[in-house]
Design a protein that fits this description.
elongated; alpha+beta; ten-stranded antiparallel barrel
């Protein structure tokens, strides 16, 4: 068991060892129906309490709520700084925040102020979006909700930034606009930018800052007095003293940037009020005037196959015993979930100041929602031969431009996969991924995450437990692969496994050459001090070329291996400037050598070395252009 897994287990065990108490009249009330899992709410609380342990982890706090039939049952551990009541402890909600954006959009839709099918450019300033690759195709609000507007990962904007450096939402969106690398509606990519852009549309249509709109139209109607989405916290300053300090992270002096996507914070009791309001009612409730608006919001709006969860107007679906919607915190130092079944009138919420919560999350999901039924295999023996699935795939929401793309390949974060024919049978395929390896077999079995998987339907594999893989085909070609909760796409030109490995090898070769050249120059200078100064102009230019090439490789090594993940995009600017400056020196040195080549009295070995240096420098610059290491 790894350290992270062990820490996760310990944190979650103490969470489950704290006695449960409720703030609702329903606790212990007879006649409550069973949860979708088949258990009753009080039984789930007892199950949580049964995980008794005398382990105490310093500063760990957690709160859990079970929602059923309009009632909330709470389990808590720990307390806030100002109070011993764990329900008063404030946590960051992370990506759960995004549901506030989609509620706001649906409110404006109900009022007829926005259309889900209208091109979003109708609601934005002229020329606001400058990096669109498919300008002839509309991006609708529903595309923003479905996370399929086509944008790459939004990597130019850091999650948090120092106080005093906070710009308006509009300025942050303009600065951090990602490149559109897919046509709208083609592929689902997780995008905080899409959520924040939808919130900006709410600002423009309503005429109020987004945090103010949420406070007036969501928090106040639901009496959520212990919650805030104001990025600087001035609307509810008392919450800062009750904030659970994150374990393993530090946000002191930092403010969220794209705050409509992950910037809200509050208590679990407030968040339970929101979930209770999202369970369909006969009337519109406190958030909507008409019940039909909420019903539309909770209706599926994006799906590739019925075997994989889709999205319901901004809220991801999940596979469970009943149709389930849910969001996770997904924020360093904090963890939790917001999961509910509209049809079953049940759900749960969990908030913690630790991001190691898998054990508790799985327990809550299985105890409240229940596992989904297994997909029934086809009896047809004529399954497609797996050769049709061959190709290289990468996660759809990868960086598609700038130095960050290659940096993440090098760190193995993109799980780039390679599929090729096997040796034994025509139908055997292997997937060699950067993080894991798996193996597909048509009409047979497949190994995936060390689990045995079987093709049970055309393009559909199952491990017999919880893991599924689906190949979405169009015109006989794989368009995307559904794997876990993400989508993979065929690698575009120059981004195959072979191309990545060749590029990496070429960069190492360039680095070794320039290091060797530098060593040779130093040795020559030591041995021939006087002759060094009398060297020809071509020799001096060659020395400048080699030094520039070495500095170029070193600068990019620092950029890719350190700066990308330790500095903000703006702080990386010095490396981009150095790349341009050093590239200029390389070009000038190479041009100088070419001009003075014939006039200089050079030995054959010198000509070979100088030509090789120019070739290696040209290769280095070509790789930098291919991988966009200038931005």
């Amino acid at each position: 068991m790894g350290k992270k897994t062990l820490a996760c287990f310990l944190v979650l065990t103490i969470v489950m060892s704290i006695p449960a108490f409720a703030l609702s009249e329903a606790e212990g009330e007879a006649g409550l129906p069973a949860l979708p899992s088949g258990m009753k709410a009080e039984d789930v609380q007892e199950r949580i309490d049964e995980y008794l342990a005398s382990i105490n982890i310093k500063d760990a706090t957690c709160a859990a709520a079970i929602i059923q039939n309009g009632k909330a049952f709470f389990n808590v551990t720990g307390g806030s700084v100002e109070t011993d009541n764990g329900l008063d402890t404030v946590y960051r909600w992370g990506e759960i925040t995004s549901i506030l954006t989609w509620i706001s959009v649906m409110q404006l839709y109900e009022q007829g102020k926005v259309s889900l099918e209208e091109d979003i450019r109708e609601y934005l300033p002229e020329g606001f979006l400058r990096r669109l690759s498919f300008t002839d195709k509309a991006i609708t609000i529903e595309n923003l909700m479905n996370q399929n507007a086509g944008w790459e990962q939004c990597w130019k904007v850091e999650t948090f930034m120092p106080e005093g450096g906070m710009n308006s939402l509009e300025e942050i969106l303009r600065f951090g606009e990602p490149k559109q690398i897919y046509a709208p509606g083609e592929v689902r990519t997780e995008s905080a930018y899409a959520t924040a852009l939808a919130a900006y549309i709410v600002e423009r249509v309503s005429g109020a800052p987004f945090y103010q709109y949420v406070n007036e139209r969501i928090f106040k109607p639901l009496d959520m007095v212990d919650s805030s989405i104001d990025p600087d916290g001035t609307d509810n300053p008392k919450l800062a003293d009750r904030m659970a300090a994150p374990i393993g992270a530090d946000y002191t002096g930092l403010l969220p940037t794209l705050y409509p996507a992950f910037g809200a914070y509050g208590t679990i009791s407030d968040l339970s009020k929101l979930m209770l309001e999202l369970i369909p009612q006969d009337s519109g409730g406190k958030l909507f005037e008409q019940a039909g608006t909420l019903e539309l919001m909770l209706k599926n709006s994006y799906s590739v196959t019925p075997y994989f969860p889709g999205i319901a107007h901004g809220i991801p679906e999940r596979r469970g015993a009943v149709r389930t919607l849910g969001l996770s915190v997904e924020l360093a130092g904090y963890g939790g979930e917001f999961v509910f079944s509209p049809e079953a009138d049940a759900g749960y919420i969990m908030l913690s100041n630790s991001d190691n919560n898998d054990y508790l999350i799985n327990t809550l999901f299985n105890s409240v929602i229940g596992k989904a039924s297994d997909v029934v295999p086809d009896n047809n023996d004529e399954m497609p031969v797996a050769a049709g699935f061959a190709g290289d795939y990468m996660p759809a929401d990868h960086p598609g431009s700038g130095h960050r793309e290659f940096a993440e390949y090098l760190r193995g974060l993109l799980s780039l996969s390679a599929v090729k024919y096997g040796d034994r049978t025509r139908s055997l395929l292997y997937i060699n991924m950067r993080i894991f390896a798996s193996q597909y077999v048509a009409k047979g079995y497949v190994t995936f995450y060390s689990n045995q998987m079987t093709q049970i339907k055309p393009q559909f594999f199952w491990d017999g437990r919880d893991s599924y893989v689906y190949f979405h085909m169009e015109d006989g070609e794989v368009k995307k692969v559904l794997l876990g909760d993400g989508e993979f796409v065929p690698a575009r030109g120059g981004r195959s496994v072979l191309a990545i490995d060749l590029s990496t090898a070429a960069m190492y070769a360039c680095a070794l050459y320039f290091i060797a050249a530098a060593v040779c120059m130093i040795v020559f200078a030591i041995r021939n001090k006087k002759q060094m100064w009398r060297s020809s102009l071509a020799s001096k230019l060659a020395a400048a070329l080699n030094i520039s090439g070495l500095l170029l490789i070193l600068n990019n090594g620092i950029l890719l291996c350190y700066s990308t993940f330790n500095l903000t995009y703006r702080q990386c600017g010095v490396h981009f400037i150095l790349n341009y400056a050093l590239t200029g020196l390389v070009v000038l040195s190479s041009a100088g050598i070419a001009v003075t080549w014939k006039r200089s009295e050079l030995f054959v070995r010198q000509k070979i070395c100088y030509a090789l240096s120019m070739l290696i420098c040209a290769l280095s610059i070509a790789l930098m252009i291919i991988w966009d290491l200038y931005s």
